[in-house]
């Protein structure tokens, strides 16, 4: 097959028979103030790219904590890879709006950090360091950070720090990548550049991505499925399948189907905020 | 042009100025030497008693350094324990504040009873006075990390100790090295204070006995020697701090 055009949920690939992440009527209350998210049921297939949009404080970051096992649900169940989630899921990698790189480590050492912590890499870290360094360098190369591996975070621009942070999230080859507004603090050009970096990484490795974003164009450009959440307590209001052909180029963002999708999302969010 | 050179010379100029003002004051007020000696008299004493002064200085120096080393070890270990969890921090805090409020000189008589006159009380006083700032700095440096970093690490299965070793400890290093500068000067204070009452060696003892014989120039020579030693050690640790924690002073976007 020459053209890997992909319709989310449409192809009958075997791994899509059983979803990878399953939320079954999940609610979470941090404290007595009530549910942060409420009655969320959804499933994400292995290799799917999903995006969450919704008003601030609606529980998007909370969703990520549930998905990665950092918080147990108050009600309902979360399953990943066929097993109920109990405790932190090592098969996930996370990146956030601020890159949170450690200032005393070089870019390379920052990227290697997860391997010093997560099993089974941790045990072999000293012995196989050369191989891990090779792996990290390859990753840095693909995000365009070649030549910066021995620089410290303060010597990198915001966009470069974000690239490094994404490498750190991916170094242990997670099956589940969690991105919480990763490009929010970047300028428009750098952001679009990083969309393409992320797109290429995903196209080549096909991990499952959960992306939280406020940027509707970003959601539509990158995702297979966009979930729209309500104001607190966060519920899933709508689910948009993005049928745009893959791989997508930045050109697509000027096409009519694209702008229509963004437009309808925009008005939907406007309504939610207006309520 | 020589902005850098002027900056480098400034401390020396300040010292020279102080010496001039000192000499001039003594001269104009005509204070007798056994009350308040001028720089010349002090320098003379330094020269004439170079032998005994260096013996006593060495005594003060090594007791201070031993006490300081004990203080660094204890401060590091206790600081790590106290700072490792909120619970420990809360549990230990009042005790630490209480301990810090005790003037350490008050321990000297106890130490003399326990260990007799000599080097041991000086070492222990230096130790008691200098470990506290190290402890507090290390404990504060280990303070909780930002929630996102915590998530990144926790999702990988990081244990509490991993987080402390990979993030907490390196991040507390600048605080640690900064506290060394404070601690080394305090250690000198501790050793000298102890020597004045509980020793027959050391600069503290030298000053005490010279003072009781009204040999004031020698007392002042002792003062000068102590401050020079303290200044040198301070500079050593300042340089060490610069070496070890450059990252903390360069990045404005540090953690
Ligand atoms: N640790 C916590 N303890 C108590 N309440 C919390 C905690 N974390 C989040 N909340 C609350 O839960 C709700 C959802 O928070 P969450 O961080 O998931 O929102 P969000 O959608 O990520 O918002 P934003 O878009 O601003 O990042 C908010 O009302 C918030 O105040
Ligand atoms: Mg959030």
Which helices and strands, and how do they pair?
The complex is a heterodimer of chains A (275) and B (255).
Chain A: E1 21-28, E2 37-44, E3 49-53, H1 60-67, E4 75-80, E5 83-84, E6 92-95, H2 107-117, H3 121-124, H4 129-142, H5 158-170, E7 176-180, H6 188-205, E8 208-212, H7 216-222, E9 225-229, E10 236-241, H8 256-274
Parallel strand pairs in A: 3-8, 3-9, 6-7, 7-8
Antiparallel strand pairs in A: 1-2, 1-4, 4-5, 9-10
Helix pairs in contact in A: 2-4, 2-5, 7-8
Chain B: H1 3-29, H2 39-48, H3 50-83, H4 86-101, H5 107-115, H6 119-141, H7 147-154, H8 160-198, H9 203-212, H10 216-244, H11 246-250
Residues 60-61, 180 of chain A line the site of magnesium ion.
Tell me the domain tally of chain A: 2
Low-confidence stretches of chain A: 1-15
Report the radius of gyration of chain B as a whole number of Å.
23 Å
H-E string of chain B: HHHHHHHHHHH
Bound molecules: adenosine-5'-triphosphate, magnesium ion
Radius of gyration of chain A: 19 Å
Order of helices and strands of chain A: EEEHEEEHHHHEHEHEEH
What is the strand content of chain B? under 5%
Query: How many helical elements of chain B?
Result: 11
**Number of E-state strands of chain A:** 10
């Amino acid at each position: 097959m020459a053209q890997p055009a992909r319709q989310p949920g449409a192809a009958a690939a075997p791994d899509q028979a059983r979803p990878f992440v399953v939320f079954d009527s999940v609610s979470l209350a941090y404290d007595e103030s009530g549910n942060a998210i409420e009655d969320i049921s959804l499933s994400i297939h292995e290799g799917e790219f999903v995006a969450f949009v919704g008003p601030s404080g609606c529980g998007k970051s909370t969703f990520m904590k549930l998905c990665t096992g950092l918080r147990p649900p108050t009600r309902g169940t979360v399953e990943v890879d066929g097993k109920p989630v109990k405790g932190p899921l090592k098969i996930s990698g996370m990146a956030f709006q601020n890159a949170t790189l450690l200032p005393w480590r070089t870019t390379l050492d920052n990227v290697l950090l997860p391997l010093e912590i997560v099993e089974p890499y941790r045990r072999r870290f000293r012995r196989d360091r050369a191989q891990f360094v090779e792996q990290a360098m390859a990753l840095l190369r693909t995000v365009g950070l070649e030549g910066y591996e021995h620089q410290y975070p303060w010597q990198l621009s915001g966009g470069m720090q974000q690239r490094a942070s994404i490498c750190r999230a991916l170094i242990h080859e997670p099956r589940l990548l969690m991105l919480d507004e990763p490009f929010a603090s970047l300028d428009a050009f750098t952001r679009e550049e990083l969309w393409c970096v992320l797109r290429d990484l995903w196209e080549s490795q096909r991990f499952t991505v959960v992306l939280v974003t406020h940027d509707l164009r970003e959601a539509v450009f990158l995702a297979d499925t966009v979930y729209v959440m309500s104001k607190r307590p966060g519920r899933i209001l709508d689910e948009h399948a993005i049928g745009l052909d893959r791989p997508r180029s930045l050109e697509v963002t000027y096409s009519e189907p694209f702008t229509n999708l963004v437009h309808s999302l925009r008005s939907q969010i406007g309504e939610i905020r207006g309520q | 042009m020589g902005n850098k050179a002027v900056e480098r010379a400034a401390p020396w100029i300040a010292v020279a100025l102080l010496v001039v003002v000192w000499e001039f004051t003594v001269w104009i007020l005509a204070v007798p030497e056994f009350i308040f000696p001028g720089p010349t008299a002090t320098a003379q004493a330094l020269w004439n008693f170079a032998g005994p002064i260096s013996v006593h200085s060495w005594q003060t120096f090594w007791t201070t350094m031993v006490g300081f080393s004990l203080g660094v070890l204890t401060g590091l270990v206790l600081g790590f324990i106290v700072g490792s969890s909120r619970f420990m921090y809360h549990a230990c805090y009042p005790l630490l504040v209480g301990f810090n409020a005790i003037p350490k000189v008050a321990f000297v008589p106890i130490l003399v009873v326990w260990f007799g006159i000599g080097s041991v009380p000086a070492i222990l006083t230096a130790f008691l006075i200098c470990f506290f700032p190290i402890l507090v700095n290390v404990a504060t440096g280990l303070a909780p990390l930002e929630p996102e970093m915590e998530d990144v690490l926790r999702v990988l299965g990081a244990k509490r100790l991993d987080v402390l070793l990979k993030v907490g400890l390196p991040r507390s290093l600048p605080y640690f090295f900064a506290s060394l500068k404070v601690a080394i000067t305090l250690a000198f204070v501790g050793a000298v204070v102890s020597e004045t009452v509980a020793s027959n060696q050391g600069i503290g003892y030298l000053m005490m006995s010279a003072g009781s014989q009204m040999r004031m120039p020698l007392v002042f020579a002792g003062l000068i020697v102590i401050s020079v030693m303290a200044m040198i050690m301070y500079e050593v640790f300042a340089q060490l701090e610069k070496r070890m924690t450059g990252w903390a002073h360069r990045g404005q976007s540090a953690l």
